[in-house]
């Protein structure tokens, strides 16, 4: 289930339940939203509800469509009689994640458009080299020196560009799927100046939001930490779940359980510990989540600025390289023409 679809579902469904609407009517209405897969899943929930089955159980049967966090929070809401509160809180969490994602992508739109424009200009030049014919006959002088001409040359260029982005996309996909345990380099990434701390802050913000939501819904600390670690979408963080559970079962506090994972910076653990002393777990983590929310917004701005700068720098380097290459080939052709026979 896409993040935007999950947010919309949680908001509409939570609002409907809060208003006292019939569960079957709400599920029938939800079957009119989203992709065919989403509509099918909502109809399955409606059929399950007709048979007296819990929503969380029906959601689990649709694996892997519904996010684990949504299933867990629905189960907690059903058990505590506060389903609408759990879903509306989860809608806010998903909205927060969407906001950060959109802010990042929006910042990349303009430099990405400039890069596309530069690529189109190069494509036009290559196409003209194959279409135009000099007065003396033959082919136009290859100012780029790549041997690319006409429509076939443009197709070759875009094929090279496509291969480049496929490789980049494959690397990103492999990282998020943790192929070969590649996420073990996360601590190294955090050591990169400016970028590393920003990435860590965004991850901690997501962790805090989920942890606060789970504790407020009435989940025990062990299950709350497990869900919060899972919400980071990183196997590196998920690996600390057992360590936190063992520590808490051994008598450790929430901050002690987090410390046992060896995943969190000392500053963060200190803030959690201070928050525990100043109030209940749910209230204290909620305040910490709000604090890290502001830090995450600044972190996204920082990463966006760096990514934008890298795109602009790449475009400038490529264009300057092509201009110099064209100038050298043109002047080289003049020099060759002026040499005595």
TrEMBL record:
Keyword terms, alphabetized: Cell membrane, Membrane, Transmembrane, Transmembrane helix
* Cellular localization per UniProt: Cell membrane
Ranges where the Type II secretion system protein GspF domain occurs: 9-127, 207-324
InterPro entries according to UniProt: GspF/PilC (IPR003004), T2SS_GspF_dom (IPR018076), T2SS_GspF_sf (IPR042094)
What is the protein's major site of localization? Answer: membrane
Its Gene Ontology cellular component terms are: plasma membrane
Which Pfam family, any one of them, does this sequence belong to? Answer: T2SSF
Alphabetized PANTHER family for the sequence? GENERAL SECRETION PATHWAY PROTEIN, TYPE II SECRETION SYSTEM PROTEIN F-RELATED
The protein's name in its UniProt record? Type II secretion system protein F
